[in-house]
Amino acid sequence: MATLKRSDSIADNMPEAFKQSRYHMKKCFAKYIEKGRRTMKLHQLLDEMENVIDDQVERTRVLEGLLGDIWFSIQEAVVNPPYVAFSIRPSPGFWEYVKVNSANLSVEGITAADYLKFKEMIYDENWANDANALEVDFGAFDFSVPHLTLSSSIGNGIGFVSKFLTSKLSGRLENAQPLVDYLLSLNHQGEKLMINETLNTVGKLQMALIVAEVYLSGLAKDTPYQNFEISFKEWGFEKGWGDTAERVKETMRCLSEVLQAPDPISMENFFSRLPTVFNVVIFSPHGYFGQADVLGLPDTGGQVVYILDQVKALEEELLLRIKQQGLNVKPQIVVVTRLIPDARGTKCDQELEAIDGTKYSNILRVPFLVENRVLRQWVSRFDVYPYIEKFTQEATAKILDLMEGKPDLIIGNYTDGNLAATLMAGKLGVTQATIAHALEKTKYEDSDVKWKELDAKYHFPCQFMADTVAMNATDFIIASTYQEIAGSKDRPGQYESHAAFTLPGLCRVVSGVNVFDPKFNIAAPGADQSVYFPHTEKQSRFTQFNSAIEELLYSKVVNDEHIGYLEDKKKPIIFSMARLDTVKNLTGLTEWYGKNKRLRGLVNLVIVGGFFDPNKSKDREEMAEIKKMHELIEKYQLKGQIRWIAAQTDRKRNGELYRCIADSKGAFVQPALYEAFGLTVIEAMNCGLPTFATNQGGPAEIIVDGISGFHIDPKNGDESSKIIADFFERCKVDPGHWNKYSLEGLKRINECYTWKIYAYKLLNMGSMYSFWRQLNKEQKLAKQRYIELFYNLKFRELVKKVPIPTEEDQTPVSNP
Ligand code: UDP
Ligand code: LCN
């Protein structure tokens, strides 16, 4: 039977595929166009096919071979009778678009732009037909930068860049001159590093390296750099090569190898030794960003945890590198967030706060200004756009003052932080990195084409424009998982969904971002292992929380912190903890539990999230979820089996809570409809809790299903609760079963998800991409001008439509 070959386009293959079952396919297409204009997802196409071909054997036959290959790669169909257009994704990152005439099944390959126009006809016909509707094409500036070609290489940008540099710098001696020029430009606050003008050509540098190496061979390995600094300076070498004769020699050997015949490994190794990053700015404007009492508040979740842990790991790695480079420099990492006067008992109204567990890192808070009035209260992450430009200007001035010069690297977090990073990095000419945590576009179905319906709540155009601008402006992108970039076999990645999309009436993005761009890199975060460690490490456990946790879980008292109770204390506990957002689906888990008698017989349920009075919430989604939780507890008569605990802000106590759940031989369940990464999953696994987590998003990659935990389908509650119940049933007869999953989870974490690995990778990227941006200066500049135009003419206009709270709206809300 014929199958799909990658060498042929879908448009070439489709007529052949239709021939297999022409009769049935014609009937299917007639059905598809019956209801007129609409978009359809794959499951709808299959459901309607089921109505047309009711015999299952026949249906299976139709979907075998070539047609099946094509059909199951469809992401979306747009019906515009008599045509049906399809967007088809044969593998991650690869998209094709075709238009089929339902009358005769003729097939035509179309461009992304034509597909989008076809789709716009459903939402805004006049605009779709406007020949001058705004088309945005960031890809037009990418012609000179090389791209990856394999789906499997996506996310390994640094590997590709080092290979590409290897070929670019090899061959004739002069080819390596850009590297020499780059080394000449390195300095710390004006003081030269690595080499000076004496060694301004490849030839001179190569010779000097040989002489220096011979000299170093005659010294004891641990001879400090200071002992030979003066002679080295005369030869043209400056500080930065190493702290001892041995380290200097290794670094020099590494460069000599690169200059002689470069290979990617020496290249990466050499860049990891270069003194390029000392001062880092990290933007995270929205939410309550603080070190105490902020977690679990709306919009204040994993991003805060991630950044604080990231800062600690980065500072540690920076201090190690600086020492090894033989330098006497204090690194500075500053997290820039917004200052919130109505701080609800947190320290978010304080301008400067030292970061615990670090020597030199701080949080700098800059207020949001509205015509020079300070915005006093928290605003949702969806509403922050009007303030970002002014906020960044103020922040830039403060940073230049605080750091006594420019930072070396600017990292953005989430849409607002990435936009701020773009504006600051563009202005100062500094290397930029972006981190999404979550891109909202994939969280809400059709959030692009239906933007008008959703605008009052979410202002998605601002968000998607800002995201696209930042993705294009940045030098490198740090993703937590592969799926974040390019999804899985069936589901497009978060970044990938920005490749081509349209906001009818506003702009048609025909090329938003290319996931084959070598700027994409995967560096997964970890969990703080001094807080989240295995429940079996008895001597390290935080016993001071024992009685508080006992009360939290098992007392029958109902108060502001907990409601419900657990009648049978001997049962294991299934536990979940998240912000009470719709997408976290804590209500879904409660419902699955409520419905599954077998599961209720086996385990208790403990939920941490939100608080209990919907009127106290200012967050739209949270209010609805609070009400739903109460309804479900009533509907399924869960009292006696559920304990619902309000959002918890003490990380140490939470660490101990996970471990107490492990003591009960329980499990962690992460039921989110979609989870970008899922820090709670790795926290739970670090504590030795067997974990069941959503198959939608990051957790599907963190856990190897059936080995280091289990995947559950949030859209199929019955099946998910069955998987959990089966596990606990098996544990009853085979206690080793629980231990096996506890240990395998831990193994997985230590191999792939630690902050040490993360910090090492990130600083290597900082170093390598600082050179890469120099090499691609012209292309970068051209793109930057395009971005500025787009930002000024389009984005700023959109931002004006986001409402700004008045002074009267500024009533403080009590802390939950
Ligand atoms: N968290 C918390 N208290 C709560 C809810 C969450 O301390 O009431 C913490 C949780 O331990 C984790 C983070 O907030 O460190 C949530 O991160 P995750 O990646 O799971 O989700 P996000 O909130 O970022 O979407
Ligand atoms: C935001 C999310 O939604 C989570 O999935 C991530 O784990 C968190 O940020 C940290 O990156």
TrEMBL record:
Gene3D superfamilies: 1.20.120.1230, 3.10.450.330, Glycogen Phosphorylase B (3.40.50.2000)
Domain Glycosyl transferase family: 565-729
Record-annotated Sucrose synthase N-terminal domain positions: 6-120
EC number(s) reported in the record: 2.4.1.13
Glycosyltransferase recorded as keyword: yes
Reactions catalysed: an NDP-alpha-D-glucose + D-fructose = a ribonucleoside 5'-diphosphate + sucrose + H(+)
Residues in Sucrose synthase first GT-B domain copies: 266-554
Entry-linked InterPro entries: Glyco_trans_1, Sucrose_synth_GT-B1, Sucrose_synthase_pln/cyn, SUS_EPBD, SUS_N
Uppermost EC category: transferase
Residue ranges of domain Sucrose synthase EPBD in the record: 156-243
PANTHER family: PTHR45839, SUCROSE SYNTHASE 5
Stated role: Sucrose-cleaving enzyme that provides UDP-glucose and fructose for various metabolic pathways.
Recorded family membership: Belongs to the glycosyltransferase 1 family. Plant sucrose synthase subfamily.
NCBIfam families: sucr_synth
Protein name per Swiss-Prot or TrEMBL: Sucrose synthase
Lineage: Eukaryota, Viridiplantae, Streptophyta, Embryophyta, Tracheophyta
